Every structure is written in structure tokens, then in C-alpha cells.
């Protein structure tokens, strides 16, 4: 039995703690915040409840397998329900459609909204993405990854890897399969699922659209935060010890291997193995002085950080049961948004894409006469020191003025909530950095911008003996299912007691 310290209590860290405890290890979780969840946060105010992180669950079977592997079915703790329609989309020309959860209905919906032939274009793309999923799906995502050669070995059919087209971008895939510019815009949005720019994201990211449509979008009643709470409960049942308000300031090493961690209060926690769920740049840049950190730190320095997000939490009077659960309002000039977010100098986008999550869930509102909306727009990351490609989100008045601007943009696109607005709360990338330790508030750590980026995140096994990485900043990437898969990889690497 190994003594294992897990740094952080985000979803990847919790999943690792559960698996390792089930494997017979002595597991302690040290979390800087007062509660679990990491980026899967919650704000409660005046009877309104808001998820402040992920708002949709894909591949729920990943969590069903996690709970089954650790000895209890997910359904014992929580239910998950499908979201149908999956999302409503509005384009700058006023065109709108709701993407059905039933794949058989998609071609007809697209033909009706975008014109004859749109459904056939989508079907051709979907078939291509299905092939991609068979190439780079579970055969890659559930196993360690350290480079392109390993990707080739791990693929189910290596000779077909040319279909991945590493020289092509997500935008290039859209142009290859989709003639309608609105469908291309719909596809390009999936780049932001990894915090990236569709003009630079590898074409393989198109598989995200297939996964979402093939396996559905799902919701946890009470908010996705409930998923973190029940996973914490499962960990506790397995004997995991939680220490909250316990920031880790260093990972100690001796004789070439990990020996434990140091905490902000000066105490030390001995460990045979350390599993880090914090941002990889923070781990290698601030928590260890071991010289073997230099190589992954240099790789991170070459990678472009992911985009961040500016959030509005809206407490609204009135309720319309027809309000879509998920809604995207596209701008007229999508490129200008990414030029602003990733540019040097960076700036808040003047005409951003607006994402709205408005679950019809009685647990999230004070009564049936109100609604709680989560609104997200892409934003540059935070830096108080003027780092290239970032802005200072603590600048006086910026939070307030940009919040008003986003409300104006929503009104211009037909969603004017000001007459219904009781109050709103704005959250910036600086808030995310302060609360979770994600450097600059970059949601996914590094972006997938560039040919090598998508599959070359920091490895799950660190070059420092006994140190492992889970979460969105390592392989296979960010998002609820992927961080749980990172925990599966690490638990397999560490092995049973």
C-alpha cells in the first residue's frame, strides 16, 4: 500500500483519488479551496444557484464506468438526463435552428433552417467524424500519450491515420465538407471546447461534434456541481482523507523521487506518490525545483495557453419553459473574436459569441417565477504584468463595463434580458485564476492551436519519479469525460497496492 497525496479536488483529482483508494492505497487529498469541484464551481444567492464551470456532460458512460470500477453504480448517487434539443443556434443573418438529440432528425432540421442540401452536407461530415472517432477515440484517450510515434502505435488502424490529416485545420475540414457558411461556423465552435482557435486547431478536433451528437448531451439535476459532490462522497466511502483550505506550496523530492508535499501552514505530508490535479504550468513552474521539470516546462513555454472566459450570472424575473437549455448566439465576424482573444495585444472581443445555459431545473431557482442563466463569452486570459496575449482583468471598471457590453450584445441579437434582470454577477479570468490556480484563468491550460498541440499535452507520468498528472492540463485534455479518463490512465500507471 502506497501513501498517495492528491493535489487538488477537481474532477480529475477526485476520480484519481477514488480509483487509487479502490486499488488499496492510502489516499489524502489536499485542496486549497473550502470545497471540492475545482472549476466545477457553484454560486448561490437569493435562492438562485449557478454552475460556474462546465454546463454540459458528454460521454456519461465514462462516469458510469468510474463508479462501477470503484464499487458502486453511479445511479445510486445521482441520475443523469439527456438534453434534447442539444443546443439552439442563432446566426448573424437571423437564421436559427435547434440541433436535435435524435440523429435521424438532424438532416431535416438543417434543410428546413438552412436550405435544401444542408442536411446532406452535415451527414457527409458526420460520417467522416465517425471514422475519426474509430481511429483516435478510446484507443488513444484511455491510454498514455507522449508523442506522435506513440499516437501511431496506439491507433486501432495505423495505416488509416492519414484520415486524421494533421496538416489540415478544423476550418479546413469545414471547408472540405460543408458549403453553407453557417454550418461551418457551427463546426468551428467546437474548437472552443479545447480553448482554441478554429483557424489553428487540428482537423481531428472535428470528432468532438460527432461525440456530442452520437452519445448525446446530458445534464445532472441540481446542477453539474452535484457530480463533484457525489464523487467526493464515493471517495470518502473508500477511505480517502480530505484536507480543505490546505494549499500545497511544494512537491518535495529526495534521491531522485517524490517524498511528499509541503503545505502553506509549514506542515509536510509524506508520500510515496504525488498525483497533481493543478495546472501543469503551476506544478512545473512553482511547486517543484527538481531539475527534471525543465523539459516539460520548456514544452509548456512553447505552447499557447487556452482562451479564458468572461461569465455573467443572471437572476431573472419570469420564466418561459420554452427557453432552450443551451443556446449560442454567433457574431457577424467570427475571426475578429479570435484575433482579439489570442492577439498581441489582446482585448475583450467587441462582438463575441454568446453562450447561454438556462436549465429548466427547480433546484436552481427560488420559485417558478424566476430563472437562473449562465452566460459565457470567450475572453483573453488575465495578467497583471502585461504578458503578451493577456490583459489585466482587475483594471478599474473593466469588469463592469464589459458586463454591460455583453448585455447589449445579447439585446442586439434578440435576447434582451434587462427588463427581467433582478441582478447580475460578473466573473472574470482573474476570478478563475484566484479560485482554482489556473494560470491566467486559461480554462484548459494549453490550447490545441497548432499541428502538434492536440495530442502533446504534458504527459500523465512526470519525468520526476513518483509524480503524476491528472486533469485538463494533461492528456487527454479538458472537459468532464476527459479529465476522468486522465485519472483512469494514472491509476493504471500507479497500479494496485
Please write out the topology.
Layout: E1 3-7, H1 11-22, E2 26-30, E3 42-45, E4 48-51, H2 61-69, E5 81-82, E6 87-90, E7 96-99, H3 106-114, H4 118-136, H5 138-141, H6 148-154, H7 170-177, H8 181-188, H9 207-215, E8 218-219, H10 225-237, E9 241-243, E10 248-254, E11 257-263, E12 268-270, E13 273-276, H11 280-287, H12 294-302, E14 308-317, E15 326-329, H13 334-342, E16 354-357, E17 370-379, E18 381-382, E19 390-391, H14 398-412, E20 421-427, H15 429-436, E21 467-469, H16 480-494
Parallel strand pairs: 1-2, 1-13, 2-9, 6-15, 13-21, 18-19
Antiparallel strand pairs: 3-4, 5-8, 6-7, 10-11, 11-12, 14-17, 14-20, 15-16, 16-17
Helix pairs in contact: 1-10, 1-16, 3-4, 4-9, 7-8, 11-12
Amino acid at each position: 500500500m502506497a501513501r498517495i497525496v492528491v493535489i487538488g479536488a477537481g474532477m480529475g483529482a477526485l476520480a484519481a483519488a477514488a480509483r487509487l483508494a479502490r486499488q488499496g492505497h492510502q489516499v489524502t487529498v489536499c485542496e486549497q479551496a473550502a470545497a471540492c469541484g475545482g472549476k466545477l464551481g457553484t454560486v448561490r444567492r437569493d435562492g438562485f444557484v449557478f454552475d460556474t464551470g462546465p454546463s454540459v456532460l458528454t460521454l456519461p458512460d465514462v462516469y458510469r464506468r468510474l463508479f462501477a470500477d470503484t464499487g458502486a453504480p453511479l445511479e445510486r448517487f445521482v441520475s443523469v438526463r439527456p438534453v434534447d434539443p442539444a443546443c439552439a443556434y442563432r446566426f448573424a443573418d437571423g437564421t436559427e435552428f435547434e440541433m436535435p438529440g435524435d440523429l435521424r432528425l438532424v438532416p431535416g432540421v438543417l434543410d428546413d433552417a438552412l436550405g435544401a442540401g444542408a442536411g446532406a452536407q452535415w451527414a457527409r461530415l458526420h460520417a467522416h467524424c465517425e471514422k475519426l472517432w474509430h481511429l483516435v477515440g478510446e484507443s488513444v484517450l484511455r491510454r498514455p500519450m507522449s508523442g506522435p510515434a506513440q499516437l501511431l502505435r496506439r491507433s486501432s488502424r495505423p495505416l488509416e491515420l492519414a484520415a486524421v490529416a494533421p496538416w489540415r485545420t478544423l476550418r479546413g475540414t469545414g471547408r472540405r465538407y460543408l458549403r453553407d457558411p453557417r454550418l461551418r461556423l457551427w463546426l468551428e465552435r467546437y474548437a472552443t471546447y479545447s480553448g482554441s482557435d478554429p483557424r489553428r486547431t487540428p482537423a481531428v478536433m472535428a470528432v468532438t461534434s460527432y461525440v456530442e451528437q452520437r452519445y448525446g448531451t446530458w445534464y445532472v439535476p441540481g446542477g453539474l456541481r452535484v457530480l463533484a459532490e457525489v464523487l467526493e462522497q464515493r471517495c470518502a466511502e473508500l477511505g480517502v482523507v480530505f484536507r480543505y483550505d490546505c494549499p500545497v506550496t511544494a512537491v518535495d523530492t529526495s534521491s531522485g523521487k517524490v517524498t511528499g508535499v509541503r503545505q502553506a501552514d509549514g506542515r509536510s505530508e509524506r508520500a510515496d506518490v504525488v498525483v497533481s490535479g493543478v495546472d501543469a504550468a503551476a506544478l512545473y513552474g512553482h511547486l517543484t525545483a527538481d531539475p527534471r521539470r525543465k523539459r516539460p516546462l520548456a514544452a509548456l513555454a512553447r505552447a499557447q495557453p487556452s482562451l479564458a472566459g468572461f461569465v455573467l450570472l443572471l437572476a431573472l424575473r419570469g420564466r418561459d419553459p420554452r427557453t432552450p437549455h443551451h443556446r449560442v448566439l454567433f457574431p457577424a465576424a467570427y475571426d475578429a473574436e479570435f484575433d482579439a482573444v489570442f492577439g498581441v495585444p489582446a482585448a475583450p472581443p467587441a462582438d463575441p459569441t454568446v453562450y447561454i445555459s438556462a436549465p429548466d431545473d427547480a433546484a436552481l431557482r427560488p420559485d417558478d417565477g424566476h430563472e437562473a442563466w449562465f452566460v459565457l463569452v470567450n475572453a483573453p486570459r488575465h495578467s497583471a504584468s502585461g504578458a503578451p496575449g493577456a490583459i489585466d482583468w482587475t483594471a478599474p471598471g473593466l469588469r463592469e463595463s464589459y458586463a454591460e457590453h455583453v448585455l447589449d450584445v445579447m439585446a442586439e441579437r434578440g435576447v434582451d434580458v434587462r427588463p427581467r434582470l433582478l441582478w447580475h454577477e460578473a466573473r472574470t479570468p482573474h476570478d478563475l485564476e484566484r479560485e482554482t490556480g489556473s494560470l491566467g484563468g486559461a480554462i484548459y491550460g494549453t490550447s490545441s492551436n497548432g499541428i502538434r498541440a492536440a495530442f502533446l499535452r504534458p504527459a500523465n507520468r512526470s519525468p520526476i519519479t513518483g509524480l503524476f498528472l491528472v486533469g485538463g492540463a494533461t492528456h487527454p485534455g479538458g472537459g468532464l469525460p476527459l479529465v476522468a479518463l486522465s485519472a483512469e490512465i494514472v491509476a493504471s500507471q500507479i497500479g494496485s497496492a
